[in-house]
Automatic annotation (TrEMBL):
Keywords associated with the record: Endonuclease, Hydrolase, Nuclease
Entries under InterPro entries matching the protein: Endonuclease-I, His-Me_finger_sf
GO terms, molecular function: endonuclease activity; hydrolase activity
Protein name: Endonuclease I
Species annotation: Desulfuromonas soudanensis
Domain of life: Bacteria
Similarity section: Belongs to the EndA/NucM nuclease family.
Length: 269
């Protein structure tokens, strides 16, 4: 009776096979760690927990030579006064229409709700009148990780106060039709959704990818939005200013956005 010849002989051959498999496993892991989409390679902000400090730093050290708002390309000065030379038409002529504000691309509420202090409060979250509070104020008071996320400069952009207020904490989406309510600014806000201008959609997608990787488990990107962001990332590639801004923030904050940095390197920017 013929005895089948084993593919690998026991002993040294088996040890060699195991060694090769182990080496392959480590190689795959190394490649994953080198990939920007792998969260372990994407540290978040751990240098500044002050939202106010982040806003001042951005105005002084990042945008000093690029005084343009993110969505509508309106100008602003070092004191936060906005001018609408780009054709922006205010929905309401009030103070916020001419005031600069710093917008969270990923809304604070979107990641804030993942914190217990935001949802349920904390025994220490009591005001001077003895009334308990929760939400943003409690999360900011009690949770350092929340404060780091709130102050992450990769997620902050200058915006017209009115647009920031109207966008609120709405998710981004594609809105049917072209109902322009802000003059030449192609920003649409309707039915608790916001559709940004085409020229910043990639910037937004890469910010969402970064926030999801840097702060895993916070529900940054839902399944419905992922494909849209992937399309935005491809349709609106990085430009010189996005690369410059990202590099400045990386130096100031101590961590980069690899979804921007890697694309800038590939583009030679």
């Amino acid at each position: 009776m013929l005895t089948p010849t084993p593919l690998f002989r026991a002993g040294r051959n088996e040890e060699t096979l195991i060694a090769h498999r182990t080496s392959l496993a480590f190689l795959v892991l190394a490649l994953l760690l080198a990939t920007p989409s792998f969260s372990a390679s994407t540290p978040g902000n751990t240098s500044n927990s002050s939202f106010n400090k982040a806003k001042k730093t951005l105005l002084r050290d990042v945008y000093a030579d690029h005084l343009r708002t993110f969505y509508c390309d309106s100008g602003f000065d070092s004191k936060g006064r906005v001018t609408h030379s780009s054709g922006y038409r205010a929905k309401k002529e009030g103070k916020r229409a001419r005031r600069l504000e710093w917008e969270h691309i990923v809304p604070a509420q979107a990641f804030g709700q993942s914190f217990t202090e935001w949802r349920q409060g904390d025994p220490a979250c009591v005001d001077r009148k003895g009334k308990s509070f929760k939400g943003r104020n409690c999360a900011e008071k009690m949770n350092l990780t929340y404060r780091y996320m709130q102050a992450d400069m990769h997620n902050l952009v200058p915006a017209i106060g009115e647009v920031n207020g109207l966008r609120s904490n709405y998710s981004f989406a594609m809105i049917p039709g072209e109902k322009r309510r802000f003059g030449s600014c192609d920003m649409e806000i309707e039915s608790k959704k916001a559709e940004p201008p085409p020229e910043v959609r990639g910037d937004i997608a890469r910010t969402y990818f970064y926030m999801e990787a840097a702060y895993p488990g916070r529900g940054i990107i839902g399944n419905k939005c992922r494909k849209m962001f992937e399309a935005w990332n491809k349709g609106d590639p990085v430009d010189a200013w996005e690369c410059e801004r990202s590099q400045k923030v990386a130096v100031l904050q101590g961590n980069g956005n690899p979804f921007v940095g890697g694309a800038c390197q590939e583009a030679g920017l």
